Amino acid sequence: MTSSLIEIPARRGKAAFVSAGQMVTVINTHGEQVVDTWAFNRTDLTEFMSNEHTRAHSLHMVPRPGDILRTNKRRPILTLIDDTSGGVHDTLIAACDRYRYAFLGVEGYHDNCTDNLFAGMAELGLKPEEVPSPLNLFMNIPWSEDGTLGFAAPPRPVPGGYVRLRAEMDLVIAFSACPQDILPINGKAGRPVEAHFTIT
Question: Which terminus of the chain is more exposed, N or C, with fewer CB under 10 A?
């Protein structure tokens, strides 16, 4: 058990083991950094937090305090306990990858959340078999009634705002401080910065 701040370095990934009943607090340290978030069953990495399955039960596009986040086997994996960040999160957009940046006109390698997931998990000696759709904490993807999506910096960013999650099973949690600097999702300057989390 640790209550000290663990850094998710800017543009990089980090993962950690979490036991059932422990709390994970994800802190948007500077107020404008998107944090892609994944959770896997510790004993079976093919079972993971699934936005699609969660939405079918919560009937919310964006999770709210009290919502149970479910796996692809429809079992509880995390519960959202508190949210002081303003409640702007995304459950629709896939993790960025090298193909996304190539599509956006980037030549050569660009840091990306997909690689960050694998790098963070590799630090624990683990390798997921696939890249689930992440819960994109602090990411503002406004949508309209006609189904059109957009990209925007979070409104009224809250430096130090956090999301607190309770583990409902022994799990591995993984994060990426999203390196997106082509589209305006990481604050007005578009400059990725570090975020932090604690496990208690």
Answer: N
